[in-house]
Design brief:
The complex is a heterodimer of chains A (about 475) and B (about 180). Chain A is mostly helical and about 475 residues long. Chain A has 16 helices and no strands. Chain A has a single domain, classed as Up-down Bundle (Formate dehydrogenase/DMSO reductase fold), CATH 1.20.1630.10. The two termini of chain A are about 15 Å apart. Classes of the chains: A mainly alpha (about 475), B alpha+beta (about 180).
């Protein structure tokens, strides 16, 4: 044992475990699997699913009406052609980023606290990407022609323009969705085998058995599996950084004041991680309480995630500061006007609400005592989620509504259909999430056991017990 | 719940252990005793087990590299052909092969094909999906995905003999020793 870890655990008041003491391989397996295999339907779960499904129907109505009428039902106009669709697209795809960060980057950095939150964060990524993907497609006006974005041989005899950020976006988002799904599914295989072996119901056994593909936990299999998982993590790491960078290119490659900025890619990625962790925590806090999983998602996790939010939030705050600085330093009258207009123009309220919710309120996380106050952390997460949505609103709307020439100035007012589509995708997201929690293990069972093994080894070494079985 | 009339033979002999360390030392003893065709089963990856079993380094990296390079080549080739040869577009007098603009799609395709190679390669190397495997004939094997650790010495090992292998495994302090029917 190194000196460092000795001193780290020396003060018991400081030590919060990533997995509560008293758990064995069996309790980990059974407690997580039984959420899925239990016969009784929890009232709270059913109620949550009902509300989410209701909102999903709002989306179905909004999307149907949109396809029938065209995007004129939205508040978009000239000059504000992007509106809610792009705001929501960027917001959702940003939320997805935390899942990949937790599953891939924290794996490579050997952060063992990731193990109990990576599964549902990855699920959250998938569902958020699904919600995100809907918006640009619906925004097309003729959504049924979305396949024109892909380079397929066609009778028109042309190919997509690969110099266009919108085509980059198509490649980035579809790759991101596919790779996230693969990564998630590979992680699930051993746990599906656990469910197969534990299920009493013959149909559950068959379905989980089919999905587990005959996984039997052979050492030869684990040997390849661990390497494949590591390589997937290695490839997902640059992927997740690239996706929001490419999304930011949609803005940065244009010549619009407030968009045409080199700070966009890093500041978008930091914002994505920020928003994503806020969503992971906002889900984890009620989830661990409702299913009594405080043993696996401990206060240590909440603490660590709060620290990640605090640091990425500071990067985002720095981004806002630099935007203002560059607006002034550019000595360009359009840039200067745009900056002033953001802060004191017709949409001043969105800018200052953004600063309040995204920069000011999250600073409470500096205090350890407040990081351990769950209701407060939950409120901060909600504040960040709203703040990150406002950020995209500010970027999209305030830059568009004042063009270079005053004759092309305008205002954007979202309609009821804008709101219905947005709230509807929240319904889609939570419907998928509720179904996921009920039908798949929301915490990675085998990685938790692996973690327990490591923790036992560490404890063994610390207590200077001679190991009896040999290593 | 056997669906066939008679077992057509024996796949091997399996011993079950209560913890990781006993499994690792049992595998070590079996290797020392000269058994080659054996496999260990555990609910999670056990560090060091690959070394005890003398497994060769996984072929995964080369498979993934091949996939990724195929993605890279197809991304470059596709965009070169589409933007330079088949449908050249003069946009502001810029060169046709303005490659920095083509990097995003190349990058994404590299990752995409690399990831598919990782998943498909892992499944193929492990022989999955495999709907039937003899080890599942042992009722106790259901614990292998929960908290059971198993060692199976297979019948096609040159040193395998049902009685001696059985008594060998019994000496390793297992919870139980079971014959694995085919």
């Amino acid at each position: 044992m190194s000196e460092q870890s000795l001193t780290k655990t020396a003060d018991p008041a400081e030590f919060v475990p990533v997995i509560a003491p008293g758990n064995t391989y069996r309790t980990i397996s059974d407690r997580i699997a039984d959420i899925v295999l239990s016969k009784d339907i929890k009232l709270g779960w059913a109620f949550g699913l009902l509300i989410s499904f209701g909102l999903l129907n709002v989306f179905a109505i909004a999307a149907t009406y949109l396809i029938y009428m065209g995007p004129g039902i939205w508040g978009i106009n000239q000059p504000v052609g992007w509106g809610f669709a792009i705001v929501n697209f960027v917001w959702w795809i940003g939320i997805g980023h935390a899942g990949t960060l937790i599953s891939a980057i924290l794996l490579l950095l050997k952060q063992d606290w990731r193990n109990s939150i990576n599964r549902f964060s990855e699920a959250m990524t998938l569902f958020a990407v699904a919600c995100a993907g809907l918006f640009p497609v619906l925004h097309l006006g003729r959504p049924w022609l979305a396949y024109w974005l892909s380079p397929y041989p066609n009778t028109f005899g042309y190919w997509p323009n690969f110099r266009s950020p919108l085509v980059w976006d198509f490649f980035a988002v579809s790759t991101y969705g596919t790779v996230s799904l693969l990564f998630w599914f590979v992680g699930l295989i051993p746990d599906l085998a656990t469910l197969r072996d534990r299920a009493g119901n013959v149909w559950f056994r068959r379905i989980y058995g089919l999905l587990a593909m005959g996984w039997r936990g052979s050492a030869r299999h684990w040997h390849n599996y661990e390497m494949a998982y590591l390589l997937l993590a290695g490839m997902s790491t640059p992927l997740v950084l690239s996706v929001h960078s490419i999304v930011s290119f949609d803005f940065a490659v244009s010549i619009l004041p407030g968009w045409h900025s080199t700070i966009f890619p890093p500041y978008f990625v930091a914002g994505a991680v920020y928003a994503g962790f806020a969503m992971v925590l906002a889900i984890a806090i009620p989830f661990r309480k409702f299913y009594k999983l405080q043993d696996f998602i401990t206060m240590k996790h909440v603490d660590m995630m709060c620290k990640v939010m605090l640091s990425t939030g500071l990067i985002v705050g720095y981004g806002y500061l630099m935007e203002v600085f560059f607006g002034w330093y550019s000595a360009n009258k359009y840039e200067r006007y745009m900056t002033w207009n953001r802060m004191f123009g017709p949409y001043w309220w969105s800018y200052w609400s953004l600063i309040l919710t995204n920069v000011a309120i999250p600073q409470v996380l500096w205090l350890r005592k407040l990081r351990y106050n769950l209701p407060l952390v939950f409120i901060v997460c909600m504040s960040i989620s709203i703040g990150m949505w406002l950020e995209r609103f500010v970027i999209v709307i305030t830059s568009l509504h004042r063009d270079y020439v005053p004759s092309s100035w305008g205002m954007y007012y979202p309609t009821v259909w804008d709101w219905a589509t947005y709230i509807g995708t929240i319904g889609l997201f939570f419907t998928l999430l509720f179904l996921f929690i009920r039908f798949l293990p929301a915490i990675n069972i085998f990685e938790m056991k692996h973690l327990l093994r490591h923790k036992e080894h560490e404890a063994h070494g610390l207590a200077h017990h001679p190991s009896e079985g040999g290593h | 719940m056997r669906t066939f009339e008679e077992p057509s033979g024996i796949h091997g002999v399996m011993a079950s252990f209560s913890d990781v360390d006993s499994l690792v030392s049992a595998v070590g003893s079996a290797r020392e005793a000269g058994y080659e065709k054996l496999d260990a089963y555990s609910p999670f990856p056990v560090d060091g087990l690959s070394d005890v079993m003398d497994l060769k380094p996984s072929k995964m990296p080369i498979i993934v590299l091949t996939g990724a390079l195929m993605g890279l080549a197809s991304g470059v080739g596709m965009q070169y052909w589409m933007e330079v040869i088949d449908y050249p577009k003069n946009i502001g007098g810029r060169p046709l092969w303005s490659w920095p603009a083509f990097v995003p799609a190349v990058f994404e395709l590299t990752i995409l094909l690399g990831s598919f190679a990782a998943v498909i390669g892992m499944l193929l190397l492990n022989g999955l999906p495999m709907p039937y495997h003899p080890v599942f004939n042992v009722p106790q094997f259901r614990k292998a995905s929960r908290d059971g650790f198993f060692l199976c010495i297979e019948a096609d090992d040159p040193n395998f003999d049902l009685a001696t292998t059985r008594s060998f495994l019994e000496k390793l302090n297992p919870i139980g020793v079971y014959d694995v029917e085919r």
